[in-house]
Amino acid sequence: MRKLCPNIDKEDGLETVLEIPIPEEMYASMGSNAELRWQNMLAWMRAQTSSKRSQPIIAARINELRFLLYMVGSPLIPLQVQVGHSVHKPVKDCSIQASTAKYIVQQYIAATGGQAALNAVHSMCVTGEVKISASKFHQGDQTINGKGSEETGGFVLWQKDPDLWMLELLVSGCKVICGSNGKISWRHSSNHRTPISKGPPRPLAQIFTDATCIGEKLIKDEDCFILKLETSPAIREAQRGPNYEIIHHTMWGYFSQRSGLLIQFEDSRLIGLRTDHGEDIFWETSTESIMDDYRHVDGVNIAHSGQTRVTVFRYGEQSANHKREMEEKWKIDEVDFNIWGLTTEQFLPPSDLQL
């Protein structure tokens, strides 16, 4: 990962530390030689701080990334580190399926390092790289855009107890930021003139403490338990907005019977929108994430790579059915726990957000 760039203000000045490290592959694609790459990177950095609108091709990429965050509803990188205190809940008065699920969750906690190791983590910073494939776009029975391309970029994730987080995603020159200060969640792109979206707080990672065990399945040659979690009506009501509501939201976790680790995660939600013209439109998203390359960092076992596939359907009154497909491959470069000097002020929403 490249962490330095040319000085924007002085050509002979010290190099600037990038807020978001970028993959060497992304840097190499900026030109055929070192001098040209530095010039293009310098021009790109100036464009990031410019108040002018981006070029159409850049704007299209920003719209694509915004679409990922807005419609899918959360970052695609499914990091499982649970920053917080004990998640143990009593099994009294639980069904057999719910009791089994709680036992599986306890095995997962043990496999990721144990409750003591997780409780010792109060904050974290994760940097890594992503590759996002351009989505296929289907309208009705026709494929409007079947030719895909792959965009490369980097990300930085900050988390702090109890529910503070911020994710900065930089892909092909497009920067998208989302986060939560524990009271509201927000997301916007820093180089595009669009309103900042806000909503109720949304934890970045959820653990299946209230799930039920519904069976077993073979995933990547691993025998896995299946845990299913239906989001409660109270949570869905809290997450609704002025012109949209979450009609249903279901999550599945596939936990290895051998290692206890989370191997696959699935998420399905149906969102209803009311347009300015009073039309009802529905978005249905299905996400499937595979976690791989578990490694210990300071006693905590973390998946360092994975792949996420997303399918989005749109249908409703007087609207042709749409379907989009996306894929993301992610890899973690560095993980640091208990960041010195990380305060709650660093998770504040943008100053121009109307609270």
- The helix/strand class is alpha+beta
- Strand percentage lies at over 45%
Q: Helix and strand succession? A: EEHHHHHEEEEEEEEEHEEEEE
Count of DSSP E strands? 16
Question: Whole-number average pLDDT?
Answer: 76
Return residue spans where pLDDT drops below 50 for at least 5 consecutive residues: 49-54, 71-81
Distance linking N and C termini: 36 Å
Oligomer: single chain
Helix content: 10-25%
How many DSSP H or I helices? 6
Q: How is the main sheet built?
A: 14 strands, antiparallel
Radius of gyration: 21 Å
Dominant shape: globular
Describe the structure.
It comes from Salix koriyanagi. InterPro entries: DUF620. This is LIPASE. The chain has 355 residues and is of the alpha+beta class. 18% of the residues lie in helices and 46% in strands. The chain has six helices and 16 strands. Strands 3, 4, 5, 6, 7, 8, 9, 10, 11, 12, 13, 14, 15 and 16 form a 14-stranded antiparallel sheet that branches. Strands 1-2 form a two-stranded antiparallel ribbon. The longest helix has 17 residues, at 56-72. It is globular. The two termini are 36 Å apart.
Task: Please provide a brief summary of the model.
It comes from Salix koriyanagi. InterPro entries: DUF620 (IPR006873). The protein is α+β, with helices and mostly antiparallel strands.
